[in-house]
Amino acid sequence: MTATNGKRSVKTAIIGAGMAGILAAIKLRERGEEFVVFEKADRIGGTWRENRYPGLTCDVPSHAYTYSFEPYPDWKANFAGGPEIQSYFEMVTDKYGIRRNIRFGCEVTSVDWSEDSCLWTVTLASGETYVADAVVAASGVLHHPNIPQIEGLDSFEGPVFHTARWDDDAPIDGARVGLIGCGSTGIQIVTAINKRVERLVHFQRSPQWILPVEQFEFTDEQRAAFRADPKLIDAIRYSDEYIGAVLRFTKGITEVDGPEMTAIEDLCRENLEKSVRDPDLREKLRPDYRAACKRLIYSWCYYEEVQNPSVYVETGGIERVEPKGVRMKDGTFHELDTLVLATGFRADRFIRPAGVTGQGGRTLDDFWAVRPSAYYAVAIPGFPNFFMLNGPTGPVGNFSLIDIAERQWGYIDQLMDRLRNGEARYIAPKAEAHAEYEERRIAAAKTTIFGSGCSSWYLDATGVPSSWPWGYQDFADAMVAPKFEDYALSA
């Protein structure tokens, strides 16, 4: 960290070139500061690079899923597909000139704090090191595939793969396909391939609440109007319809027996009752837990597509996988050509498996021995100048994580100002402030809809919801400015 005219230049290492890493890079470029983005893959995109499965669609309306400073007039539809979103991030990366600051094929293996120099050393898989004043972990949440522990999985003779590692050569057209998992990914794949297969067996451990939404394409005239007047885009993404829905949704999460959650459940229940004709299938698809306890599914066509005769919904327990297919606990055997695992991700990994060592030699693995946590989802006591975007205990749900990351960056930027202004060489939350935050958060989390009794990736290893347990506006308010009295600074 060098000083000029009373100011200090801050050198930053950003880990990950997905949505959040691109955001951090753009903001640091605007400040004219030195930074490097380390990306383990060969191109940007994160989630939208890794996932290429048929039917991949964002469940946030397209005009709400953009950076606030870079609206996009040319979205094709109300809900955008994965390839189009990847193209958007590629465009933004080039427009803001940050690609030259990204080092591709550079996997971070460790990040170590030096008490003497007050600097971080970032070590790559190649053995190369990079020294920085600050580290921004923008590695995302959903990037370590969760592979189910099913007996005989390795014995299957056909292709078997996780949806984040989609196999383009696997038999789908005219084939017998097994699909394990019915989160957003599983639902989207069913809608995309059911007319292509001979038979699709959709293995569902538990059915989903599905909220009906409207999908439609924007006309050429509409896109031309968006290009001519960006205020028309703002009118959509800041509309009472979208913002109101987000606020109602988060209020329903925190007030589980309130009118908002009742309305959500009524809509989902009505969608099931009116859409599925076969009473036996309808009961197979009926959840036995509260809506939004798992991530709520948005779909405009799943109930229609799942009724295609080619689809069989299997709700029994899997006994084992055999070379030719899947054996159920009741003895039923499903002969298959291809087996697809839509089984989600290990949502507790974050920057790991990279090792992070902070003050006093304490590791992040040790700090997170019980559960991943960060003070207001951004910073960790004992890990100075180490900041996270979309880190543990942040808001999750059916809204834009771009907006969450932008709010977090505004907060992080103010913390880094203390470094830039020469007021401190490092900054980190006080241990007691973090402990008090976690105590309040855990107590509140247990009363949210996420803690109402289902099994989901929202829960930590102890069964406590790992997310932000208060309203969306509460988070927005908390990100306006840090409470610096809760932070330890070193001059």
Describe the structure.
The chain is α/β, with parallel strands linked by helices. It folds into two domains: 2-144 and 346-490, FAD/NAD(P)-binding domain (3-Layer(bba) Sandwich), CATH 3.50.50.60; 153-341, 3-Layer(bba) Sandwich (FAD/NAD(P)-binding domain). It has helices spanning 19-31, 47-50, 82-95, 184-193, 220-228, 231-237, 240-254, 259-275, 279-284, 302-306, 364-367, 401-420, 431-445, 472-478; strands spanning 2-4, 7-9, 12-15, 35-39, 102-104, 108-114, 119-124, 129-132, 134-137, 160-162, 176-180, 199-203, 210-212, 297-299, 311-314, 318-322, 325-328, 333-335, 338-341, 355-357, 386-388, 426-429, 487-490. Strand 17 (325-328) and strand 18 (333-335) form a beta hairpin. The longest helix is centred in the last third of the chain and has 20 residues, at 401-420. The protein is globular.
